[in-house]
From TrEMBL:
InterPro entries: Metallo-B-lactamas, RibonucZ/Hydroxyglut_hydro. One of its GO terms (molecular function) is 3'-tRNA processing endoribonuclease activity. This is MBL fold metallo-hydrolase. Residues 16-212 form the Metallo-beta-lactamase domain.
Length: 234
């Protein structure tokens, strides 16, 4: 797994928005800066077959119009599957029409398939199994933590959320839990370091890594945590 983008919505610390590569063909979230980040790290966007979304804020899904149009202009032929919250297809179409009017109706050499999460119901996508866990984050549609199982590894990602015990279920027994650590102290709709520290021993995962940190979190004492950065390979 590669942390292509580890930043918050505003590029704090000069970091790209959320984008996590699982192998060469899968992304978990695709923030608006993701195409730039993929190219900076010499990753081929046309190799991506699946994008798993946690929620529908621009710093987590706003790179999809660019990923799709880049594939169109560079003669991509392999289909792209997007798995996201209910409403993903409509939100994606609206985003494409806002950014590039007419772009959502163009016939391409590849199809874009949109599937929806159902809380705690696994979906099998080739050699991946994706399980969503509904969390607490206002984004105009349900928000999820996601668990991704490959044939030999398992990872979970919190997405953006206040504390909820659903995170314990998402991270249960995984090799790696990538967890938002947005603020040093409690803030609505996001995870904070104080709350995580209090509950840290409740997680049953092999490794926990923080991501999506605000400027105040980046400036805090993080010596007791492992913190993601752009390009980190795990």
């Amino acid at each position: 797994m590669t942390i292509v983008g580890s930043g918050d919505a505003f590029g704090s610390g000069g970091r790209f928005q959320t984008c996590i590569a699982v192998g060469a063909q899968t992304l978990v979230d695709c923030g608006a800066t993701s195409l730039t980040a993929l190219r900076q790290q010499s990753r081929e966007p046309n190799e991506i077959r699946t994008v798993v979304l946690t929620h529908l804020h621009g710093d987590h899904f706003g790179g999809l119009p660019f990923l799709i149009l880049d594939g169109q202009f560079r003669r991509r032929t392999e289909d792209l599957t997007i798995v996201g919250p209910p409403g993903t297809e409509d939100r994606l179409k609206a985003a494409m029409e806002t950014l590039y009017p007419g772009s959502s109706e163009v016939r391409r050499r590849f199809d874009v398939h949109v599937l929806e999460h159902t809380d705690r119901r696994p979906q099998r996508l080739d050699d991946l199994t994706v399980t969503p866990y509904e969390v607490r984050h206002a984004s105009g549609a349900p928000a999820y933590a996601v668990r991704v199982q490959t044939p030999d590894r398992s990872i979970a990602y919190s997405g953006d959320t206040e504390w909820t015990d659903a995170l314990l279920d998402a991270a249960d027994g995984v090799d790696l839990f990538l967890c938002e650590g947005y603020s040093p102290t409690p803030i609505r709709w996001h995870l904070d370091l104080a709350t995580l520290a209090e509950r840290r021993d409740r997680f049953n995962c092999q490794e926990l890594v923080l991501t999506h940190l605000s400027p105040t979190a980046l400036a805090a004492d993080l010596t007791d945590w492992t913190v993601a950065y752009d390009g980190l390979r795990l």
